[in-house]
Structure formats: structure tokens, C-alpha cells
Amino acid sequence: MTIEPRPLALVTGASSGIGLALARCCAEDGHDLIIAADEPEIEQVAFALRSLGGAVTAVQADLATEAGVEALLAALAGRPVDALLANAGRGLGHAFLDQDFSAIRHVVDTNVTGTLRLLHAVGQQMRARGSGRILLTGSIAGFMPGSYQAVYNGSKAFIDSFSHALRDELKDSGVTVTCLMPGPTETRFFERAGMLDTSVGQAAKDDPADVARTGYAAMKAGDGDVVSGVKNKLQAAMAHVTPAPVLAAMHRRMAEPKEEG
Q: Sheet containing 175-181: which strands, arranged edge to edge?
């Protein structure tokens, strides 16, 4: 009797927040996992997820670097990826000209360059097999000029747009591409981005488990995109019909540090 291997899911940014919740969704749905993050906590997460019955490999790597992406790809050891959930991302608050450029570069290299490098490698393998699912974590922030969060919002605008372009290119390939676009979520994002002194940083936020379940269901259904949460859906709809200067002013009120306001 031949035992069919479990499908493999690769989840980045999986040490906490939405990424951890997505990894749990995959494990509960019968996947083996390769999970990645740039923090040592990823090993503890792997230990916990193994209790759900599948094999779990943890990779601690900085996906803003080429070496980090290559280390993650090497961990596949030639095994095909059935689902790629590219969730790794970094934020950065405060005014653009006041930010350290190395921090700016790290946001771009994590959210855009590293994500593209991983997608390029895994996507080619999926296309060659004629099957696979890709979930990209974008953001409703990509719909708004992000005053006091300009680089992050710009990076998410790229991901939101890119996901639809890649989906169209792969429409006849057997590979689906889905973009999850959450709003503010209760994760370590705002702490890491230096935004705890802002209105959005101090406001109530969505549950990452709810956001992940919404994204995972959309990926399984092969949907093109999904905005999680009713409030976020309304905000996204308004962004499409609101002039950019108005959106930028609205975002300033949410993201400007209180001591600068």
C-alpha cells in the first residue's frame, strides 16, 4: 500500500501574527510545513505546530537578503511546494526624511525584493508542474498614500498590483494567485515599525487568526483577492473613489506620531 505524501506549504513571516495563524491553518488542513522568519522564535513555533500531526521544518533567515532566500529554498531539498504563503513583511513609521535609509532599504528588500525572489523560484516550479497555490499578504494600506508610513504603503501598493498581474499571467497554468489585504491587525507590526505613539498604533485591531482564516479560505477557493473585515472592506471601497490628497491627509491623522502632531 502506497501512502500519499502530505502536501507541503511554505509560510514566511511565520513566527507570530498573521503568518503564524496561516501556518496553523495549513497544518490543520493536512500540510507539512516549512516555516521561516528572521527570529529564533521560529523554532518554538515549529515545535508547537508539530503537535498538529505534520512534519515542520523551521528556517531562521532574513528574507531581505539573497542569502536568506537561498537558505529557505535550500531547505526545500527538491520537494515540490503545493502552497506558498508569502507573508513576511516589515513596516516603518515616522516621516520619510527622518528615517534611517538602512531601515528604509530593509523594508523594501523584505516586502518587495525578497518576496519577488522567492516567488520567482517557487512559481517557476509550480508552473512547470501545472499546479500550486500562492497567497501574498498585501494590505489595504496599498490603496492609500501613506503619510508617515510612506515606504510601507508604497511597498504594499506594489504587492497588491503585482499579485493581480501574476495571477493573469498564470491564469491558464493551473497555478492560482491570491492577495490577502488586511487592515490594522493585532500583531507586533506597530511595535516593530515604531508606531505605538500613533492613533492607528493605539487603536483596536483585527484578530490575526480571523484574518488568516479569511486569506486561507480565499487561497483554497482560488480567489484573486480578499479584504478581511467589514470595516476594512468599506475603507478599501472608499479609497478607490477618494482623491489622493484627501487620502494622504486621512492617513496622516492615523500614522503621525502624537508628539509631532
A: 56-60, 32-37, 8-12, 83-86, 132-137, 175-181, 225-227
Is 2 inside any structural domain? no
Torsion angle (degrees, nearest 10) of CA 190, 117, 156, 195 = 20
Enumerate the active-site residues: 152
Range of the domain at 141: 8-260
Give the residue carrying C-alpha cell 491570491: 178
Per-residue model confidence (pLDDT) at position 98 = 97
Which residues, in sequence order, are bridge partners of residue 137? 180
Q: Per residue in 60-89, is it b (16+ CB within 10 Å) or e — as a string? A: bbbbbbeebbebbbebbeeeebbbbbbbbb
Query: Is position 49 within any domain?
Result: yes
User: Is 1 inside any structural domain?
Assistant: no
Tens of pLDDT, residue by residue over 49-98, are: 999 999 999 999 999 999 999 999 999 999 999 999 999 999 999 999 99
Give the CATH number, domain containing residue 30.
3.40.50.720
In a domain, 3, yes or no: no
Return the number of other C-beta atoms located less than 10 Å from residue 150's C-beta: 21
